[in-house]
Structure formats: structure tokens, C-alpha cells
């Protein structure tokens, strides 16, 4: 790893009741390229068989790396040109017309809902194709196949790419090079679903809905559409308001096909979605209707696995008539938000049952209970924690990156570890609402430490938020909330030492420490070191969050 060879002057401040009590200076060497350590770049760990495909995709516009242009997801002249995706699909023989699909959009929860629904259908015996984004380890994760839900094999994906490469080449030339990474990958997913003759595909939209590349599905192929939640994420790309976001996502509603609304939604947002459904003559199922419930019963640990038990009751009498009553459903997906996602997926499966698909109550139960996604409220095993040299501490990784998901994360922490000493390790992309995220996490149980760091986004630094900027944001949020903080500037490869900062251990014990770590692994160690300064017999919990990208880094560090 090359060294910057840069030395910066940092100061140590201790703030108490908004007053500076101590000020000192230190010189620290910064010798790491933050967050882009070996093994974390986009395709570093991919199968060599995929080299040709990955090299090809690398030469296309990748908005996950660069960020999405203003208005790109809106149904306007600024929006992505869905016509070029339709033309590409036509040249490939319209593979998306050869299978039925459930199309899922939403600000949060669409990936988890897609996983729940896919597993319900697999438990019933269907061969299911599932397309989601982003991925943690390999691009193959985005495309899963069959009755087991395994990622597409390297061989199958590489073979398909070489089969259709000439067609894609011509399409790119015809579109003057404007086809994107996501559009080509979506086309490959639809093509392999058609080749594998899946019974049904569960498709997660990438951005918005109306102009998303996945939205070439028409009413004749659509079994149902699902809109999980509406929140203020990707505001610039989706029109600048909650209302414009709702309009963009409602673009997946198709004529005469049922739509499941997750929610809960603000009344005027629900009205926008219902009005769009009405214009499309689409039956509406509201998963968050008060008559539908997913009731939490308790949190348990069995054979080292954490799960929450719940009862699920759905009784729909408008537009469609649906009923199910399941007791003691044990979900590996934790948190109140996952109770809602499970309820939404169950409503979608009942919509399919209403259309004649065989979906038994037992398959719904089993599918929900077998669903587990890496990086979503995931507690690491003691062996995984030991992989980064940490023992006796619980590590939770979660890809939360919005105010709403931060609230859900806080609820999960309170549910599972109500008495633990808490620390956060955070890295985020530039296009997120950093201050709202910080406020929400600080509004819950007060952490003993917050360590800010940096990771590459999709293997690139373009959308990476500098840790210094994040640190200022968290200090501002703490100030607004009246939280006493110890502001320590520490950015070093060496073991964190309180003495280095000029702060007394007692100050660190009685305030929330906010500082910077040179890498995700180093940040987790700093967080645990600070927690160890507290009561010896108190459980310790380090939460790694802010994006799925930091989760990927944390999991890679902890692999055993």
C-alpha cells in the first residue's frame, strides 16, 4: 500500500456544555489510502472467468460510482431514456416478455421485500429469478436463480455475455455510447431468466421507477407491482420533493395489475399512489392498513442465531379479498422495519394466490423464516469478530443510510442490546442526508463513541464523503441535541491511545467521543478501545453503518 507521506496538524478539543475546555496540538502521519485497501476494489475478488464481462462493464457509464444526474429518475425530459432500454431488449429478442414478474420499487425495504417474496415462492417449489442491487461481494449476487436462490454461476454469466456481446456492441453504437452499466446488466439478467425458463421473476428497481431500466415490463408480463416506502432519498435525481419521488415510483404501476403499497405513508403521498393506481385501473392492497398486523412477540437467540418472533394477520376486503393468520413466525431479519417488509411480501404473495398461483400458508411461513440477507441488521459471530482482533464485543453491521433506516437501526439496537455500551463506525456516500442520519442515531441511545471513516463507493472515490466532513456533521448534530462530546482528532495506523489525544480517560468515559479512523478495521478497534474504558461488566456493541459499502468492507475484514 503506497503512503501519502502527508502530515497534517490536528487539534484536540473537549467540548462540554458547548464550551472548549482543552486545546492541544499534535502531528500525525496519515499513511493509508483510506477505505480502498487491497481486496476492496470493485472487481478485486471476482472470478477470473468474469474478467471479459467486468472489463466490458467497467467501460460503461456507472452511476453507482459517479452519482445519478439531476432529474434522471423523473418522467420528464431530464429522465433516463427508457426507449434505449426497450430498443436493446428488442434486439435481444424481448426476453422480458417470456416470464411473469413482480416489480418492486421504494425508498427503503425493496431488497428485503424481494428476498422475502422470492423465498416464499421457492418454498412453494417455483423456479424463481431475482434481480437486486447493489452487491456485497460479487456482481453475481444481483442475479439469483432456481429453487435454491443461488447466485448465477460465473460460467453461465460469462457464457451469456459472449453469446450476446455482438448484439450489445451494436446497441451501444446505435445509442451513441449512452447505454449504462446498469442497463446492460439488467438486460443480461432478463435474458438469463428467459433462458432458464423461470416460473416467475422478482425484480427490484434501481432508482425511482418510471424511468428505471427495469421498467420495460408491461402489464402483460406483470403479475403485481410493489411500492414499499416513500422517503427523501435521491431527491435531486427524483424531482426534489416527496411528491415527485412518489410520482416516479408509481411509474411501475401497470394497467389492470394489482399494486401492493407497503407503507405506512403520509396521507397525501398515499393519495398520489392511489390516484395513479386508479388511472391504471389497478387494484390496491395496503399492507399497512390497520387491519393488517405483524405483531412483535419477542427476541430470541437459538444456536447462535438471533431472530424475532411475530404473528402476521392480513384481512383485505377492498379491491381484492385476502386473508391469512400466522402465529409464531420466527424471522432472522431483525427490526420493526423487517416486520413491515415481511407483511408487504406476504401481501404480494397473497396477490399471486388470488391470480391462481399456488402459494400455501406454510410456504409463506417457511419462506419468511428462511430469509436472511447479509448486511441487514447482521450480528457477527465471535469467530468473525476475532478476524479483526476483537474479542468480547458484539459487532452489528447494517447498511442504513437514511433518516428512516437510522431510526429502524436504533430500534433494533434497543430491542437486542438494551444495556450495552454503544459505539458507531460510520462511512457514507456524498449524496445522502448526513445531518439527518446523524441526528436520528444520536437521538436514540447515546453512544460512547462515533468513529468516522471512508470507503470507496463501487470501488471508486468519486462519491466518498470525506471523514473530516462527516465528523463536522456529527459534531453539529451533537451540539444541536445538547450532547457533551470529546472531539479527538486521531487518524493513525497505530493502536488508539487516549493519552495521545491529550484527553484524560475520565473525560472519554463521561462524554461521547467523536473521532476519525484510517480504515474500517482500525475504526472498529478504536471504537472497542473506547468502550473498554467504561464499566468492565457492561456488554459492548459496535455498530458499523452508513452504507452497504462500509458493510462490505467490515465483512471482508472479518472473514474467517
TrEMBL record:
Is the keyword Zinc assigned to this protein? no
- Locate the Mur ligase central domain: which residues? 104-348
Q: Which PROSITE patterns match?
A: FOLYLPOLYGLU_SYNT_1 (PS01011), FOLYLPOLYGLU_SYNT_2 (PS01012)
Q: Which UniProt keywords apply?
A: ATP-binding, Ligase, Magnesium, Metal-binding, Nucleotide-binding
Show the GO MF annotations: ATP binding; dihydrofolate synthase activity; metal ion binding; tetrahydrofolylpolyglutamate synthase activity
Cellular component, GO, one term: cytoplasm
UniProt-listed NCBIfam families: folC
Q: Which family does it belong to?
A: Belongs to the folylpolyglutamate synthase family.
Supply the name of the protein: Dihydrofolate synthetase
Protein species of origin: Thalictrum thalictroides
- Taxonomic lineage: Eukaryota, Viridiplantae, Streptophyta, Embryophyta, Tracheophyta
Amino acid at each position: 500500500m503506497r503512503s501519502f507521506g502527508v502530515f497534517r496538524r490536528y487539534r484536540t478539543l473537549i467540548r462540554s456544555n458547548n464550551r472548549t475546555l482543552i486545546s492541544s496540538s499534535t502531528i500525525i502521519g496519515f499513511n493509508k489510502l483510506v477505505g480502498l485497501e487491497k481486496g476492496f476494489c470493485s472487481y478485486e475478488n471476482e472470478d477470473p472467468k468474469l474478467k471479459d464481462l467486468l472489463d466490458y462493464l467497467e467501460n460503461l457509464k456507472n452511476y453507482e460510482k459517479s452519482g445519478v444526474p439531476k432529474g434522471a429518475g423523473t418522467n420528464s425530459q431530464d429522465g433516463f431514456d427508457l426507449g434505449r432500454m426497450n430498443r436493446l431488449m428488442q434486439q435481444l429478442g424481448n426476453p422480458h416478455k417470456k416470464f411473469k414478474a413482480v416489480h418492486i420499487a421504494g425508498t427503503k425495504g425493496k431488497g428485503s421485500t424481494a428476498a422475502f417474496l422470492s423465498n416464499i415462492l421457492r418454498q412453494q417449489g417455483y423456479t424463481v429469478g431475482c434481480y437486486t442491487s447493489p452487491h456485497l461481494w460479487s456482481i453475481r449476487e444481483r442475479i439469483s436463480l432456481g429453487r435454491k436462490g443461488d447466485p448465477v454461476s460465473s460460467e453461465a454469466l460469462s457464457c451469456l455475455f459472449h453469446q450476446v456481446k455482438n448484439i450489445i456492441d451494436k446497441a451501444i453504437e446505435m445509442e451513441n455510447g449512452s447505454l449504462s452499466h446498469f442497463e446492460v446488466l439488467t438486460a443480461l439478467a432478463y435474458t438469463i431468466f428467459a433462458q432458464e425458463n423461470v416460473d416467475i421473476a422478482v425484480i427490484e428497481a434501481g432508482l425511482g421507477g418510471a424511468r428505471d431500466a427495469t421498467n420495460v415490463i408491461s402489464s402483460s408480463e406483470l403479475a403485481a407491482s410493489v411500492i414499499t416506502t416513500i422517503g427523501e432519498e435521491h431527491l435531486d435525481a427524483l424531482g426534489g420533493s416527496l411528491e415527485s419521488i412518489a410520482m416516479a415510483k408509481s411509474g411501475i404501476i401497470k394497467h389492470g395489475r394489482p399494486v401492493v403499497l407497503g407503507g405506512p405513508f403520509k396521507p397525501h403521498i398515499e393519495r398520489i399512489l392511489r390516484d395513479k393506481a386508479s388511472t391504471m385501473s389497478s387494484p390496491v392492497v395496503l399492507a399497512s392498513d390497520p387491519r393488517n398486523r405483524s405483531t412483535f412477540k419477542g427476541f430470541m437467540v437459538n444456536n447462535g442465531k438471533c431472530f424475532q418472533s411475530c404473528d402476521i394477520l392480513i384481512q383485505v376486503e377492498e379491491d381484492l379479498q385476502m386473508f391469512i393468520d400466522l402465529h409464531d413466525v420466527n424471522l432472522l431479519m431483525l427490526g420493526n422495519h423487517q416486520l413491515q417488509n415481511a407483511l408487504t411480501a406476504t401481501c404480494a404473495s397473497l396477490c399471486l394466490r388470488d391470480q391462481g398461483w399456488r402459494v400455501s400458508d406454510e410456504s409463506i411461513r417457511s419462506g419468511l423464516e428462511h430469509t436472511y440477507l447479509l448486511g441487514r441488521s447482521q450480528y457477527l459471530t465471535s469467530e468473525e469478530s476475532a478476524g479483526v482482533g476483537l474479542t468480547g464485543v458484539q459487532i452489528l453491521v447494517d447498511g442504513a443510510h437514511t433518516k428512516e433506516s437510522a431510526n429502524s437501526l436504533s430500534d433494533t439496537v434497543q430491542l437486542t442490546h438494551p444495556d450495552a455500551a454503544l459505539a458507531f463506525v460510520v462511512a457514507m456516500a456524498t449524496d445522502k442526508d448526513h445531518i439527518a442520519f446523524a441526528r436520528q442515531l444520536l437521538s436514540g441511545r447515546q453512544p460512547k463513541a462515533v468513529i468516522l471513516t471512508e470507503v470507496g463507493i463501487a470501488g471508486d472515490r468519486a462519491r466518498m464523503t470525506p471523514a473530516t466532513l462527516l465528523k463536522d456533521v456529527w459534531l453539529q448534530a451533537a451540539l444541536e441535541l445538547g450532547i457533551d462530546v470529546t472531539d479527538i482528532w486521531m487518524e493513525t495506523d497505530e493502536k488508539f491511545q487516549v493519552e495521545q489525544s491529550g484527553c484524560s480517560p475520565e473525560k472519554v468515559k463521561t462524554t461521547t467521543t467523536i473521532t476519525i479512523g484510517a480504515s474500517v478495521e482500525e475504526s472498529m478497534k478504536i471504537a472497542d478501545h473506547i468502550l473498554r474504558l467504561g464499566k468492565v461488566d457492561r456488554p459492548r456493541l459496535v455498530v458499523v453503518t452508513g452504507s452497504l459499502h462500509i458493510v462490505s468492507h467490515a465483512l471482508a475484514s472479518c472473514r474467517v
